[in-house]
Amino acid sequence: MSDQNSAKVLQAEAKDRSSSPLARIFSGSVGRNLGLVIALLLLCIVGAVTAGDRFTDVNNLLTIVRQASIVGVISIGLTFVIIGGGIDLSVGSVMGLASVAASFAVVQDLADQSNYIVMVLIALGVGIAAGFVNGIVIAYGNVVAFMATLAMLVGARGLAELVSNRRTFVVDQDGFRAFFRGAFLGIDALIWLFLIVAVLGWIVLNRTTFGRRTVAIGGNREAARLAGIDVKRHTTYLYALSGLTAGIAAVMILARTTSGTSTHGVLLELDAIAAVVVGGTLLIGGRGTITGTVLGVLIFNTLTNVFTQNNLNSSVQNVTKGVIIVVAVLLQQRFARGPSR
């Protein structure tokens, strides 16, 4: 009898602890994002101590964000897909295909005759089209997302190589280069574009019906269907959104490198998925934040910069990234199970 009473007391104390305001804060998205901020600050401190002024220089800090911008935009689209219970392995290849399509000589000539926005629309159109194909095959063809997007990864890369004949197309459209390689208030246009996409992604996920439906589908697909959500159509939209962000990233890589090639985006999907996972988005779906994804991208790019500034072996850098990913997944599993009883 005393054992039962002791057990009840322990359960009551555990419940009180888990229901305290502080516990709720740290177990929620705010607490997880705070942990990411602390990790980012620690990396910055390490960089400042080991590399000194080379790391803390404003130009170097802007370089970190600039390098994070492309994978960051792709990661935001992937965040929606993963929260919705899916996965998209094709974003890197789709970005490469879109960059090739937008840099064709005929497209650039058309842009010269009208406006550089033509190149942007072509890149976005290719990305959205590839995303729609992924979504239709997955939602209506009942193909596992992993296999469907793996097929698109291979197919889009192959198509990019075919249509470009494995050549690199130089972007010499003056309006395009002037706008996307320019700066506003001393900050690169690519960084502004990353910021705009991140803000829009946060608004869509947290303040719209689309975002709430995405979380509901990822949390319990069948319950979402019974609640009246058209799960198949919404899933198609999620992959189209991922394709859209891949198209935006294609525009950004064209601006950064002034060239379109089928090799753009090779293995970029792995970096994006890693950033999303480290940012706190559950691989099983149903939970995630845009803020966490942005912090995850910045953490990985800051880590890369710290290693580069200190001339450290890239292999050690890859091992460190692998350890970070494994730790993030283990923590995800812990939080997904909830407090043990």
Give a structural overview:
A two-stranded antiparallel ribbon has the order 1-4. A two-stranded antiparallel ribbon has the order 2-3. The protein has one domain (42-306, 313-336): Orthogonal Bundle (ABC transporter involved in vitamin B12 uptake, BtuC). It is globular. The longest helix is centred in the last third of the chain and has 27 residues, at 231-257. It is 78% helix and 2% strand. It has helices spanning 2-19, 21-27, 29-51, 53-56, 58-83, 91-102, 105-113, 117-139, 145-164, 174-180, 189-207, 209-219, 221-226, 231-257, 268-278, 290-309, 314-337, and strands at residues 169-170, 183-184, 187-188, 259-260. By secondary structure, it is mainly alpha-helical. It is built from 17 helices and 4 strands.
- Mean pLDDT across the residues is 86
CATH architecture: Orthogonal Bundle
Instruction: Please report the first level of CATH classification, the CATH class.
Output: Mainly Alpha
Number of strands: 4
State the order of secondary-structure elements, H for helix, E for strand: HHHHHHHHHEHEEHHHHEHHH
> Which bin fits the share of residues in helices?
over 70%
Structural classification: mainly alpha
Radius of gyration: 22 Å
Distance between the termini: 20 Å
Structural domain count: 1
Number of helices in the DSSP assignment: 17
Shape designation = globular
The name CATH uses for the topology is ABC transporter involved in vitamin B12 uptake, BtuC
Give the low-pLDDT segments.
5-10, 12-18
What percent strand? under 5%
Q: Which strand order do you get reading across the main beta sheet? A: 1-4
Characterize the biggest β-sheet. Answer: 2 strands, antiparallel
